[in-house]
């Protein structure tokens, strides 16, 4: 997630400079063949402008849907933050000796609370990790130049900026060895962690650490975690329909192909200055359409480790700090700070 108010021109050029280069080469070649009279073919501006308008509407629709996916993902993670705090509050307030015949020691009560809190923190980081596993339609899975470009974006503007913070996270710090080995053998460890919480609650109810009402209330929160996890998995595993995602790219390509055969002859009537002025004008128009397409293309997947991602690492760390403070801990991990105006 970009956290600066504006986007610095240097970063914009790093992100899109190669598009300016190839557009400049294409438009310059078109100017040269017109300048030396190799072709006299002219496409009237009216049909090209109609195509450009239609493409703008189509790409705008795609970008709107891409933003909707990103914003929905952010709302889901907002729900995870809220429900996690509710979970911490319930663990801290519900588990006690009120319903027991023989009182457990404060140390035993604290150990139970810590187990439930730490297991939930493990779920947060594991869920985040699973959401970052590439799908077949994401950029990094395409191979060739697109894959290398996506890897560069991840390294320079995404998760690569936070390698040290990520390396410091280990689920073994939150789960005992036996449970860790059991969970990590499963196809969906995040799902099994929530199920382990439910089994633990059943055992606590049998031991009268909680009553039926508290048991059911805490189960409702676990169900909410499953719902939120499922919503994130739906966004991750169901892409923006490819007929929308791919056709807009072809439409932008068609428009840029026709653009010089209409723009350059129109400006040639202005004399020598006009024909050479057509290069930056055509490049600018083409760049705007290309960037509209790219912004939507990279925003449709909010869980791919790039600059447009939901800041799952930062949110998970915020939740961890809140929950561990509920346990009375004072030695807390540091907040995740932005790097290069990027927060992950």
Please provide a written account of the structure.
By secondary structure, the protein is mainly alpha-helical. 71% of the residues lie in helices and 0% in strands. It is built from 11 helices and no strands. The protein has helices spanning 9-35, 45-94, 106-131, 144-157, 163-167, 177-184, 189-206, 212-237, 242-268, 272-299, 312-326. The protein starts with 8 loop residues before the first helix and ends in an 18-residue tail after the last helix.
Cα radius of gyration in angstroms: 27 Å
- Spell the H/E element sequence: HHHHHHHHHHH
Mean pLDDT level: 89
Please report the distance between the alpha carbons of the first and last residues.
6 Å
Spans of at least 5 consecutive residues with low confidence: none
Work out the strand percent: under 5%
State the helix count: 11
Instruction: Tell me the structural class.
Output: mainly alpha
Quaternary assembly: single chain
- Shape, per Cα inertia axes: elongated
Please give the largest β-sheet: none
**Helix fraction by DSSP (H/I, runs of at least 4):** over 70%
Task: Name a few traits of the molecule.
single chain, 344 residues, mainly alpha, 11 helices
């Amino acid at each position: 997630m970009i956290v600066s108010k504006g986007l610095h021109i240097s970063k914009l050029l790093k992100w899109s400079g190669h598009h300016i280069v190839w557009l400049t080469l294409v438009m310059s070649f078109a100017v040269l063949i017109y300048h030396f009279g190799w072709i006299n073919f002219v496409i009237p501006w009216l049909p090209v402008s109609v195509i450009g308008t239609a493409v703008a509407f189509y790409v705008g629709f795609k970008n709107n849907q891409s933003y909707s996916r990103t914003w929905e993902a952010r709302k889901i993670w907002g729900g995870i933050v809220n429900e996690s705090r509710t979970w911490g509050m319930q663990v801290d307030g519900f588990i006690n000796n009120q319903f027991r015949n023989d009182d457990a020691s404060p140390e035993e009560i604290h150990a139970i609370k810590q187990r439930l809190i730490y297991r939930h923190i493990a779920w947060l980081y594991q869920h985040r990790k699973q959401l970052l596993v590439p799908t077949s339609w994401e950029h990094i899975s395409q191979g060739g130049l697109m894959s290398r470009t996506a890897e560069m974006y991840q390294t320079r503007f995404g998760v690569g900026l936070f390698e040290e913070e990520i390396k410091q996270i280990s689920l073994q710090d939150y789960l005992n060895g036996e449970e860790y080995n059991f969970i990590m053998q499963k196809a969906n460890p995040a799902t099994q962690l929530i199920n382990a919480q439910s089994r633990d609650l059943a055992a606590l109810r049998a031991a009268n650490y909680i009553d039926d009402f508290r048991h059911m209330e805490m189960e409702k929160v676990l169900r909410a975690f499953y719902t939120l996890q499922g919503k994130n998995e739906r966004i991750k595993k169901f892409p923006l329909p490819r007929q929308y995602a791919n056709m807009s790219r072809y439409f932008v390509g068609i428009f840029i192909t026709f653009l010089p055969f209409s723009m350059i002859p129109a400006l040639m009537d202005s004399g020598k200055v006009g024909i050479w002025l057509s290069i930056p004008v055509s490049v600018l128009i083409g760049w705007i359409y290309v960037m509209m397409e790219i912004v939507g293309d990279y925003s449709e997947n909010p869980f791919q480790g790039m600059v447009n991602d939901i800041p799952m690492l930062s949110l998970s760390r915020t939740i961890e700090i809140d929950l561990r403070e509920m346990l009375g801990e004072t030695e807390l991990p540091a907040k995740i700070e932005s790097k290069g105006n990027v927060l992950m």
